[in-house]
Amino acid sequence: RRPHYPDHTMSDAPRYRFAPSPTGFFHVGGARTALYNWALALRTGGTFVLRIEDTDAERNRPEWTEGIIEALAWIGIHRDDPHFEGPYFQSEYAAQHVEAAQRLVDRGFAYYCDMTADEIDARNKADGTQGYQGWSRDRGLGPGPGRALRFKVPAGTTTVRDRVRGDVEFDNSLIEDFVLLRGNGSPMFLLANVVDDISMGITHVLRAEEHLPNTPKQQMMWEALGHEPPVWAHLPLLVNDQRKKISKRRDKVALEQYRAEGYLPEAMVNYLMTLGWAPHGEEIQPWSQMEADFRLEDVNHSPAFFDLKKLAAFNGEYIRAMSPHQFLEACRPWLLAESAPYPVDRFDEHTFLAMAPVIQPRCSTLADAPGLVDFLFLPDPVLD
Fold this sequence. Notes:
3-stranded antiparallel sheet
C-alpha cells in the first residue's frame, strides 16, 4: 500500500479507474464496468487504475478485496499487466480528503453547520420545506465538535456531458448543500471519490447509471477545486427478465458463482461486453477484436437484459470450439471433484477424450460434463 498518491503530471495518456467497494461478492455489473474500462485503457495506451473504496470499515473484509483481484484476473484483467495500476486503498488517503475540504472552505465553497437531523426536520416542518435549505450559510461558523462541513451549491444549472447519455442538465435548486465532512470530521464518500480521482489523474469515469444523480455534485467539486471534470460515461442498467434492475437479493449476480458452475471466462467476457454495446459483425468474438472495436460513443443507454439463457448459449459456443484436450483440462476440476457421480479413481482420460466430441455439443457449462459420462466410469451403470 502507498502512503501518497503517485505523480502523474508527466503523462498525457488516458487514465481510467475501477473503484469497487469490498463489501461482498463480485457483481456481474461491476465486471461489465471493469471490462469497458479495460478495453479502453488497452486500446488507447492508457492505464486501468484499481482503487478499493474501503472507507466503510464495518462492511469491508480483506478477503473480499482479494476476491475482487481474483475475479478481475479471471476475466483477463491482470495486475501484472503494464496497463494495470493498483490496487490503491481509499482509506489510506483520508488526510488528503480533509485537506481538500479545507481548500474548499478557504475558497468560499464550503461552510460549517451545527444543525442536527432533528433540528433540520423541525425547521422544515415550521417552514413547510423539505431537505436542507442552507440555513447555516451565513452564520460564519468555524470547525468544532458535531459541526458538519457542507458544500455551497451555486444557483443555476449544472450540465453533465455524458458520452453515453448526452448532455444531462440538473437544476441546482433541487440539490441541497451536501455534506463533505461529517460532524466527527470524517470525509463523505462523494468528497473522497472526487479527491481520489483528481489526485490519481483520472481522465475518464465510466460507471453504472445509478451514480448519475451524484455526478452534478461531483462536477461542482471538481470545478471548485480548480480542475476540469473528467469524461463522464454512465453505463446502462442490467435488468432481469422482469426488466427490473438485477439485484443480489433475487438474481444470480455473483461472478464467482458463474465460475463455480462451469462458465468459461472467455464466454463471460464476450457476453458482458455485449450488454449495452453491439460488437461489429458476429456477437461471438475474440477479446482482441472487441478491444479494437469498442467505443464509448457506441454504448446504448437503454437498460440491458442479463439473459441467463443467452449466456449459457455463449458458453456452449465456446465449449464446442475447444479441442478435446482443452475440453478435458477445462472440465478436470468437475470431473475429479468429490461430488462427481462416479468413483473418481475410475475416471480415465483416454476414454473421456474419445467421447469429448460427443459430449461437448451437449454441455452448456463445464459442470454438465460429469453427468454425461458417468455411465463410462460406474461399476454398475444403469442405462436408460
